[in-house]
UniProtKB/TrEMBL annotation:
UniProt-recorded name of the protein: DUF2304 domain-containing protein
Segments crossing the lipid bilayer: 6-22, 34-55, 67-85
Domain of life where this protein originates: Bacteria
Biased composition (Basic and acidic residues): 136-145
Protein species of origin: Actinomadura parmotrematis
Region annotated Disordered, chain positions: 120-145
Record keyword Phosphoprotein present: no
Keywords: Membrane, Transmembrane, Transmembrane helix
Ranges of biased composition (kind: Low complexity): 122-135
Length: 145
């Protein structure tokens, strides 16, 4: 098997893995499109290796392999930046959800505490404290952003 056959084999295996991940819902369609395009580009370069030489001549790169490595580096850099922005967005979403759930639980606990205090008899209140039923409820939650 020559280098071009190896490229075709790699592109075929990549396509199979991508479609299997899509089928099992391990990869979303918006990411799969990019990787399918990369696999197709690999297949095209394996079938028509002169395309890389032609592109190297057009861009002024002396060694076609250098153009290939440069293009692959750009693809990986772009994927990394896109995934980093996606992770940042999801971290913000998780933080906001955690804060919302925490505030809701705090509200529920405060409400349950007030209900329990209202059910207690005033003479059952601990010594030195005002009866719970007459106490004004205070809102001590932190401000929401």
């Amino acid at each position: 098997m020559n280098v071009y056959g190896l490229g075709l084999l790699g592109a075929g295996i990549s396509m199979l893995v991508i479609f299997e991940m899509l089928r099992r819902r391990r990869l979303r369609e918006k990411y799969a499109v990019v990787w399918v395009l990369v696999a197709v580009a690999i297949a095209v370069l394996a079938i028509f290796p002169d395309v890389l030489t032609w592109l190297a001549d057009i861009t002024g790169v002396q060694v076609p392999a250098n153009l290939l490595f440069f293009g692959a580096s750009l693809v990986l850099l772009t994927a990394n930046v896109q995934l980093s922005s996606e992770v940042s967005r999801l971290e913000d979403k998780v933080r906001t959800l955690a804060e919302t759930i925490g505030l809701e639980r705090l509200d529920r606990l405060e409400h349950e505490g007030r209900c329990a205090a209202l059910l207690q008899r005033p003479d059952a209140a601990p010594a030195g404290t005002a009866p719970a039923a007459s106490a004004e409820p205070r809102d001590e939650r932190p401000e929401r952003r």
